[in-house]
């Protein structure tokens, strides 16, 4: 599974004890809810269903019943520049992994109660940003009026 070249073992030298696979897997929350024993992963296109099954069973010791995969075409977006051209994101593969019926999977709650705090922080930062914009606008206005005192405003 790994294409890395490890140095040849010479007697007396320490052995490499870390397994670094070439593949990555991302747990993805599906748009439509899945049963509790099914999990959706985002994997590279080169990874097959057999690779996904081995990856989960050998590294994480998760019992896998079945793996279904499909290739998803990358999104096409306009470039954020003056030149009109399109940029296509890389394709990826989605793998739906069926676990045994007694195994339940829950998506992790990454934010928990902190989500409300984060939203408050975002609002506060947006207010600061608006204030900075207004101050910058006032400053550029006063730059156009050289040698005129601030109290002499229109």
From TrEMBL:
This protein's record includes keyword Ribosomal protein: yes
UniProt keyword annotations, A-Z: Mitochondrion, Ribonucleoprotein, Ribosomal protein
Domain of life: Eukaryota
Cellular component aspect of the GO annotation: mitochondrial large ribosomal subunit
Pfam families cross-referenced by the UniProt entry: Ribosomal_L23 (PF00276)
InterPro entries, per database record: Nucleotide-bd_a/b_plait_sf, Ribosomal_uL23-like, Ribosomal_uL23/eL15/eS24_sf
Subcellular location: Mitochondrion
Keyword DNA repair: no
One example GO MF annotation: structural constituent of ribosome
BP GO terms, sorted: mitochondrial translation
Chief location: mitochondrion
Complex and partners: Component of the mitochondrial ribosome large subunit (39S) which comprises a 16S rRNA and about 50 distinct proteins.
Family recorded in the similarity comment: Belongs to the universal ribosomal protein uL23 family.
Name used for this protein in its record: Large ribosomal subunit protein uL23m
Species this protein is from: Dermatophagoides farinae
